[in-house]
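Annual report, structural modelling task.

Input specification for the calcium ion complex:
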Amino acid sequence: MRTERSCTRLLLALLVGICLVSSGFVTPAEAAPKYRWKLAMTWPTNFPIFGDAVIKMADLVKEMSNGEMEIRIDSKNKHKAPLGVLDMVKAGQYEMGHSASYYWKGKDQNTLFFTTMPFGMIAPEQYAWFYYGGGNELMKKVYDRHGVYSYPGGNTSNQMGGWFQKEIKSLDDLKGLKMRIPGFAGEILSKLGVVVTNIPAGELYTALDRGTIDALEWVGPSLDLNMGFHKIAPYYYTGWHEPATELQFLVNSKKFDALPPHLQKILEIAMQFAAYDMYARSYNDSAENWAKIAEEYPNIKLRTFPKEVIAAMKAENTKLLEATAAEDATFKEIYESQRAYMKKVRKWTEMSDYAYLKDNLE
Ligand code: CA
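The model returned the following structure:
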């Protein structure tokens, strides 16, 4: 009798337990997430600021979804294809990616516009264009052809023009100058006589130190400090070529469309938050790191390119853009959208931030 009763009790306890778990009253601590995604980023493991933005996004998704969705981050050290991120997301090998749109210029020149453009908009203007000026819609149009969605993925703020061994006093000083500067800006400078090279990040310091190159651009104090360029090059130029470098989150469209709506929303909010947060972080780190460089290396000379150099760069930039726009209707559409928006938004920048700064700088 006693045995029978304890058996019944045990059975009841088990049934109650099962009911509680299945009805959601008790969540097992180790419950597996329903959606396990993988993200491939262009950056190496522990890459500051860029990599931190990705971690922030993934952590937010996990927390906001109460563990229903998890995103595993693979750095370039793992997937070995830093410039293959678009292809891997397109193929569905990874559900997501984190990279920069202008890296895909060789596959689709229209992707160029969604990172930053020489002499283009500054970060607040560009964010306004993305979210309220038709930028995100144009980005969707371009990326729909690749079967992926693209989202703003974090801004470096205005990038510096680079580290130079010699001062640039005229256009003649550009002739034969060996400089590492990738992308569209490199094309502009090569028209002005610069010998443009692209050297992997890990070899840049040695190349500048040994005279393999005379100048290079990287990002700005936020990321330049760790590279140590200030120890070997005395001139630091202000920027013209990457006024608002926006990174990019890529999402495979089919995988995104298959997510339940609440997880789609959570993912979009997490990406937007991480992007804007990276802008604030970049601004802070540039200020902090420049203060360190200026204190430890007071002989670093901050320079702006002479007016004739800037004018020549601008002219080449317009020539290159218009030549491409004449051959590619989508390129033309995006170019004109950015140009028209910049004209409008720049007026506001001039009468607000610019006017304020002009009158308040010593
Ligand atoms: Ca750069």
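The pocket of calcium ion is lined by residues 159, 217-219, 242 (CB under 6 Å).
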